[in-house]
Amino acid sequence: MEEEKRKGLRVVLFPLPLQGCINPMLQLANILHSRGFSITVIHTRFNAPRASSHPLFTFLQIQDGLSDAEIRDAPTSNVMSLLAQINLSAESPFLDCLNKVLLESKDSSEKVSCLIDDCGWLFTQTVSESLKLPRMVLCTFKATFFNAYPTLPLIRAKGYIPLPDSEAEDSVPEFPPLQKRDLSKIFGEFGEKLDPFLLVVVETTMNSSGIIYMSCEELEKDSLTLSNEIFRVPIFAIGPFHSYFSAASSSLFTQDETCIPWLDSQEDKSVIYVSLGSVVNITETEFLEIACGLSNSKQPFLWVIRPGLVLGAKWIEPLSEGLVRSLEEKGKIVKWAPQQEVLAHRAVGGFLTHNGWNSTLESICEGVPMICLPGGWDQMLNSRFVSDIWKVGVHLEGRIEKKEIEKAVRMLMVESEGEKIRERMKVLKDEVERSVKHGGSSFRSIETLSNYLLSL
Ligand code: UDP
User: In angstroms, what is the span from residue 252 Cα to ligand 1's centroid?
Assistant: First the structure.
């Protein structure tokens, strides 16, 4: 009966144009579609999702104000600046597009239930209010991080930065389990420029009809309760649904499938998978340190080197021929991997990651312990949970040095300490897996969300 009612309802989704935001939005689209809703995805020209991979959804592209040259240079540009620019330019095209969808629905039997968009859009609450359409927020971070949005300006103003070495490992009293040394990478070059952005996000979220998290009670029950108290809107934690709806179909880059036969030729749990996601950049010196660390570890590795990852380089040119030869003896380098399939492969025993929330969840879902090398923002917090709270990984503490990398890889992959981490990861994986199974916390939350969308 409820399923029948949902059949006459359409939900409009609007992801932020980043791989780490598109993946969870399209997973949500799949979840809602499987519950009977029709789906329209409005998207920017920049990082447009591949419509052909989702024939059951309607895709509508809007102008984002970026020039062809800006789009071409995006892999090596500052992504935060691009997003700020799009946030300024896309409001009016978005309003026109959404208005058109609503007008069309007036003439059809199918009604639009609500807009669901990323918490990083600054204008969507105003637009949806002007069109009298309820709006829900998809938060692609861990709830603990989003909960800190209202307090981040206060923490910044407290002046923990610059920090004396003696206090580096102290916890941030307003934001456990973060350590004071993590703060400089959260505020980065933006500093106080972040405050107005955070304020708008908090305000518009509080005016929204609810928050959806790709997370679950098993990972952060208290944070989810707190989120409800802070933002005073309904909260739905519906993840991680990776095993049901893979992120692979929403990949913006071509995935190098030769990884899989290469992994097939490796021993069980012997390979360390290395990827720093779609946005993080490293310097040439850091790149060479990682290369030497992996080579010296003597452990097989699969390394994703995204074009644009290394600042000032197109791809792997900073590696000498000799180093490439020695890397190829034990490892494989690709530009982009089918990450979920890789993590699920029996040969993969560890993940050297930047701890983006998607990568962290995917690793937990596949029970792969991590080496944490966060690059900034929420990654600083995710990595603390991985290493200090759940204890399912080792933290490099920002030391991108060959000896440290070699030591961490060997510790995780061959030493007894690594075995203990692996056992803890197995327990966490099983708990999280239960949440999405029939009757589990996320499973129930999806049901509640579906009924809530019906009621809007
Ligand atoms: N990913 C992938 N292939 C790669 C590296 C990453 O498919 O070689 C996917 C990964 O599975 C994840 C997303 O890209 O779903 C990255 O999101 P995350 O939140 O981890 O990091 P971000 O890229 O946003 O920093």
Answer: 10
Residue corresponding to tokens 């895709």:
59
Q: Select 2-248+436-455's CATH number: 3.40.50.460, 1.20.1630.10, 3.40.50.2000, 3.30.930.10.
A: 3.40.50.2000
Task: Map tokens 């720093």 to a residue.
Answer: 276
**For residue range 377-396, what is the model confidence (pLDDT) as tens digits?**
999 999 999 999 999 999 99
Domain topology for 253-433: Rossmann fold (3.40.50)
What pLDDT is stored for residue 5 in this prediction?
A: 65
CA of 202 to the centre of ligand 1 (A): 26
Interval 52-111: pLDDT, tens? 999 999 999 999 999 999 998 887 788 888 999 999 999 999 999 999 999 999 988 899
| Low-confidence winner among 247-251, 255-259, 285-289 (lowest mean pLDDT) | 247-251
Q: Which two tokens stand for residue 147?
A: 């909960």
Name the percent of the chain lying above pLDDT 90: 88
260 φ, ψ (degrees, to nearest 5): -70, -50
Q: How many CA atoms lie within 13 A of 68 on its CB side?
A: 0
Minimal-distance CA residue to ligand 1 atom 21: 356
| Shortest-distance atom of ligand 1 to CA 248 | 7
What strands lie across the sheet with 393-395, from one edge to the other?
Answer: 331-334, 301-304, 271-275, 348-353, 370-372, 393-395
Cα(354) to centroid(ligand 1), Å:
10
What value of ipTM does the predicted structure carry?
1.00
Residues 442 and 241 sit within 8 Å (Cβ to Cβ) = yes
140-175 in b/e form (b: 16+ CB < 10 A) is bbbbbbbbbbbebbebbeeebeeeeeeeeeeebeeb
pTM: 0.97
Ligand 1 pocket, residues with Cβ under 6 angstroms: 18-20, 23, 247, 251, 275, 277-279, 304, 336-337, 339-340, 356-359, 362
